[in-house]
């Protein structure tokens, strides 16, 4: 077992950083699948874009506050993300707790998005019936006002599991916050 040293990144973050480098500029390297539970108890999975870290073990994800994800987070804040990095042949499963935080207009998250990325928040309410006349802008400028439904969702991680398919036998590792991110090897 290997432990994280004080002030340093947990061992899984260091491995993830290396895997992301191997992915290069591949757009899909920033895509994560988020699993939530709906209020009726059924599972939901969707793909989100990784936006960044807040500290050593908290992911930042952006979403539309009008989407069903927000009600799902309020119903059951425990979530799991799956991050598949194909070139590195690694799959990360990140388990944690989601908290809804609205981004205020003076924060840099909105400005950090590309014009086409910001445009998604100019679209009509997600999941509602399609209206052909509704606006679907392709871009929004940096100085566009931050919509009230632009939400940053921090995910505080409690557990990370790695399945590394580049080894024989495959390597499976587990880290838990509650034990100081000690690394434990598991059978694949």
Automatic annotation (TrEMBL):
Gene3D superfamilies: Electron Transport, Fmn-binding Protein, Chain A (2.30.110.10). GO terms for molecular function: FMN binding. It holds the Pfam family Pyridox_oxase_2. Residues 10-99 form the Pyridoxamine 5'-phosphate oxidase Alr4036 family FMN-binding domain. This is Pyridoxamine 5'-phosphate oxidase Alr4036 family FMN-binding domain-containing protein.
